[in-house]
Please model this.
Amino acid sequence: MDEFALIRALAAKLPPPGEDVMVPIGDDCAVVEGKGRMAITTDAVVEGVHFRRDTLSPPQIGYRAVAAAVSDIAAMGGHPAWITIALAVPGAWPLEDVVALYDGVSEAASSLGASVVGGDVVSTEGPLWMSITAVGKVDRPVTRAGARPGDVLFVTGSLGGSAAGLDILLGRRAGSPVAQAALIARHRRPTPRIAFGREAARLGATALDDISDGLASELNEIAEASGVRLIVEADRIPVQPEVTEYARALGADPLAYALYGGEDYELVGTAPRDVFARLLAVAPIVGTPVAAIGRVEEGDGVVMRRAGRLEVVARKGYNHFER
Amino acid sequence: MDEFALIRALAAKLPPPGEDVMVPIGDDCAVVEGKGRMAITTDAVVEGVHFRRDTLSPPQIGYRAVAAAVSDIAAMGGHPAWITIALAVPGAWPLEDVVALYDGVSEAASSLGASVVGGDVVSTEGPLWMSITAVGKVDRPVTRAGARPGDVLFVTGSLGGSAAGLDILLGRRAGSPVAQAALIARHRRPTPRIAFGREAARLGATALDDISDGLASELNEIAEASGVRLIVEADRIPVQPEVTEYARALGADPLAYALYGGEDYELVGTAPRDVFARLLAVAPIVGTPVAAIGRVEEGDGVVMRRAGRLEVVARKGYNHFER
Model:
């Protein structure tokens, strides 16, 4: 299989592009019909850093890479439209596994409502990597910088499951087989909160971020960008129930998975009280649980109340360049 | 330096974003004001495959990576607006060299009229790589598929210089020092033909492609996508004069550099005769030489007339996956 045959095999995996795609894969560029404001984001994954062959199958690698990029669009209050993919292939990867990456890419793009419109395929002497660019439409962008004193601090879904699932995949098994299976599934198949993000933007949320690096890191991002202090109630943080079971069986702190685990791709944000009340009402309609976990105050940093004591929550999580 | 400090150091190198950027680097996504039709392209470069540390300095690596992506926008008849960059950094690269990549990124973005609006920085155990996504505005896209029998086949600038420059950098020295310096400069600093591409689109060119893989490969792309035969006159192909000097000193065929060398980032295209006449008139205004090198006929494939004989020009050039 040569480069052109590989590109054809990858493109054949993809669903037909949407009606807003004038020139699809195969020319110098894709051409699309732009509409108003757009969100653009790029997210890269590297074998050995973001995944391993024994923790994710090729379709799972492809699915997660697209989901992670699209999650950034959701965190801006937008919805994804177009995706490009750069893919670097090492000689040691069988080409059928490379093509199988695109089963996951295709599934993610279809289910998230985006068209894969282009990319680049190159060889590398190093590990396999993918760089995903997602372009979406966004009417009212919600950055990290709008949190105001008095706002409610909220988070969607439940946290900690992805990191616990990864720990299990890396051999640290504990708890019931059912709980372990649920955590592994959570790691392998995140769901970007597109519909909730759009509602949050429409209703007037003041800040929004997706949880890729762990809740602690994202809270610090919002506090710093907005110039406010965030007060978190530890017992309100929605830790995934299986995480609690797993962590207790290990003798570990379940909350640490939620705070520092990352890759849950839930949304964390802030909103005035009346906006949050409307978000609570709309949450069941978009199928996304949401919970208030604290509030915004004047000041700086992130402070958590746990068992009656206050502690500072440091920005901690994966850092690529601690040299 | 940690990940956040590195990102700040990279962002500090960049010129201020354009007025159409509502949310710049630093949030989940960039948000931009879209306007009508847009071209999207992604282009990746990998150390050891697309460049080596001894052939390009870090700023040259950054400049060329951006120029190569923007060239795809030019080949669609568009002009670039926004760029995102995924960058993977191996432990062996000094961080000051990583930051210096962005001197070139910044220079390319400024000179080509684009804003760098985001990206991702990750670590890797393999070679350094960059994946560049460029999004541009395009009024009338010119694909590879519109060439029609009777059209003139044209090419901009001169060809072969980049590949000859690379050969010299890899130690294959020949010819005068002045010619060698010109060829090395040509390799290190390509110029995407944005203004010419836009004029070609506006005036009614029927096909357009940029020369990244060599003229032979791009001609075959156009012939195949358009369902036509291209007839090329060998003695009209504008080989860069220093390439002729260099190749003759080596005992090599200068034309082989133009046909198979690649990375010249000139444009090759087709246009009806009257459109080509207008392109000839506008070429000096946009500072881009253009030459007719043949014509479009019914049939398929690419045929070159050289010294009175006809030969088929095969698609040849760098192929990432010849296994």
